[in-house]
């Protein structure tokens, strides 16, 4: 895993870049306003949350999670994002689609 | 320039205890006063001769010599004093990166107050920004950084960081850090808010943890590096050398054994991170009590831009949950912007939708506008949280998009598909800190800084997403060469280690069981009160009246706390973990308030209702000079005094 990315550092291109145009008068504000459209829903690999066992609405998700592979990153057999080609990355919508870095609702960076 | 240490204004510059705003130069951004190490510049030497008529060393356990000096073998004269070429305070990305490099030249002690991985780095989940795509450019990254920083950034610092970032990432990868990549083998780069290009390198959603893991593994395998965990840094050891303050190491408290351990070193790197716990709600782990900023201030280092505290607008407010968590949550749970992006609406507790009053974009306004609006509502209505309601959206979509929020809330009795989510802003990052030059040097000889504790000029008035790990990496690396050069020409006087009085651990034997327990209880309560004052009066929306109120209340609170301690047998040199953290929190809180009072404009993260606009003439950093040593409070004075027999008249 450590050896694979040194030589070529060209990122795959994405069409999402047009969403992040800065408004003109943002001298006083530092954030980018979120785009109006909502992304399509997708099942996410649960790394962080242990869902409440009693919740019916979470059982569906839980079954699917158990079928998925867990991993800390690196190695084969990982989730490959079909849209981005990213290996071992987050499932579901692009974490930065609204500017911050989110996973399943929790923001971890902004 | 305000902060220049140059002949002619050195006397004006060195006004003890003052918060210095300085004059503006037209069309001039921030210039770095530490382009050359000020202690070695010819100008400075001439000044010293003028000022004190001598060129002696004063008290010095360290003498500079023209011959290269030998490296210290890690020898302990006694277990309570240790000698190293380099001491690193903090085990986050900055500290560890630096340690690995300087370990090639000499012995290194890494001091950390908890487990080594317990740092803000570990919780930095998003990514590291760097120009790694051929369609991207250093200029673009610079531009994004400067815009985010409301043009208060130091351009040269920004250029250096954006230029050197990619190389630092490559080194991390070579050290074994594992970042996400595409099927073609290239790094997968994400694009975060404020960035014009895809440039965020990440490891799933735990980049900080992955970097920390890789660095820690290398550190633990390095025979030249000794890690001292559960060692709390108390105060830096310094001496005065005519106009110079020189750092000789640091006193620490071994929390496990309750013993003081003194580290004497030729070079010290402060990489102790942030100070989120001056506020009641913060994303920072418990260790982030501003220890480094406080120690540096007490050691006569210049502090800068402390008013720029970054908050996240919508952290889960435990107070609003039907079932409160049994223990206080250590790190705030941040609710993503995606909730608002997907249609979430903000209400105050009167169920009024307030965002349209503040901005026509309502909930889709930029994050800092939302943060200000929420803060304003909370202060006006004297309430503890507001509500973010997504329950009007389809249940299955809510659960699909935000399962983390759903389950966390449900654990505490709240169903987000039916009820609004209680949210409150949380402190996240300190853009200001110990003023650093381009090599991480400070105005204290032998003291370098890197990471969140430093104010390098990169972030300006607001940090761009994912630039903090980058800053830490770049500056940790840049501090290596000057550190090594200084180390090589420094000779250590081992016998000088007792020139400073030793801290004394507060024990039941010293003070009595009952006193210890009363002090512990009071300290806990005082911490909570300080946090409340900071949130209420030094939050996101500020005003001169609120800030001066804060100043007064903090002074009263500090006096009340110190009086209690000292009336119950505490003395100047007595130490305990909670009390030392408390004095650091007081120190940082006061630095934030003073800085905020000094900036009579609104810029970036600092917003003042009585100065609501950006003022071009005020586009300069806020500088806090060292306090006069006669200042009364315990939080402002170093514990250790130099024994009078060691003083030489200057």
From TrEMBL, chain A:
<feature type="region of interest" description="Disordered">
    <location>
        <begin position="12"/>
        <end position="110"/>
    </location>
</feature>
<dbReference type="InterPro" id="IPR012875">
    <property type="entry name" value="SDHF4"/>
</dbReference>
<protein>
    <recommendedName>
        <fullName>Succinate dehydrogenase assembly factor 4, mitochondrial</fullName>
    </recommendedName>
</protein>
<feature type="compositionally biased region" description="Basic and acidic residues">
    <location>
        <begin position="97"/>
        <end position="110"/>
    </location>
</feature>
<dbReference type="GO" id="GO:0034553">
    <property type="term" value="P:mitochondrial respiratory chain complex II assembly"/>
</dbReference>
<dbReference type="GO" id="GO:0005739">
    <property type="term" value="C:mitochondrion"/>
</dbReference>
<dbReference type="Pfam" id="PF07896">
    <property type="entry name" value="DUF1674"/>
</dbReference>
<comment type="similarity">
    <text>Belongs to the SDHAF4 family.</text>
</comment>
TrEMBL record, chain B:
<protein>
    <recommendedName>
        <fullName>L-aspartate oxidase</fullName>
        <ecNumber>1.4.3.16</ecNumber>
    </recommendedName>
</protein>
<dbReference type="InterPro" id="IPR037099">
    <property type="entry name" value="Fum_R/Succ_DH_flav-like_C_sf"/>
</dbReference>
<dbReference type="InterPro" id="IPR005288">
    <property type="entry name" value="NadB"/>
</dbReference>
<dbReference type="Pfam" id="PF02910">
    <property type="entry name" value="Succ_DH_flav_C"/>
</dbReference>
<feature type="domain" description="FAD-dependent oxidoreductase 2 FAD-binding">
    <location>
        <begin position="86"/>
        <end position="469"/>
    </location>
</feature>
<keyword id="KW-0560">Oxidoreductase</keyword>
<keyword id="KW-0662">Pyridine nucleotide biosynthesis</keyword>
<comment type="function">
    <text>Catalyzes the oxidation of L-aspartate to iminoaspartate.</text>
</comment>
<dbReference type="InterPro" id="IPR027477">
    <property type="entry name" value="Succ_DH/fumarate_Rdtase_cat_sf"/>
</dbReference>
<keyword id="KW-0274">FAD</keyword>
<dbReference type="GO" id="GO:0009435">
    <property type="term" value="P:NAD+ biosynthetic process"/>
</dbReference>
<dbReference type="InterPro" id="IPR003953">
    <property type="entry name" value="FAD-dep_OxRdtase_2_FAD-bd"/>
</dbReference>
<feature type="domain" description="Fumarate reductase/succinate dehydrogenase flavoprotein-like C-terminal">
    <location>
        <begin position="527"/>
        <end position="612"/>
    </location>
</feature>
<keyword id="KW-0285">Flavoprotein</keyword>
<dbReference type="InterPro" id="IPR036188">
    <property type="entry name" value="FAD/NAD-bd_sf"/>
</dbReference>
<dbReference type="GO" id="GO:0009507">
    <property type="term" value="C:chloroplast"/>
</dbReference>
<comment type="similarity">
    <text>Belongs to the FAD-dependent oxidoreductase 2 family. NadB subfamily.</text>
</comment>
<dbReference type="InterPro" id="IPR015939">
    <property type="entry name" value="Fum_Rdtase/Succ_DH_flav-like_C"/>
</dbReference>
<dbReference type="GO" id="GO:0008734">
    <property type="term" value="F:L-aspartate oxidase activity"/>
</dbReference>
<dbReference type="Pfam" id="PF00890">
    <property type="entry name" value="FAD_binding_2"/>
</dbReference>
<comment type="pathway">
    <text>Cofactor biosynthesis; NAD(+) biosynthesis; iminoaspartate from L-aspartate (oxidase route): step 1/1.</text>
</comment>
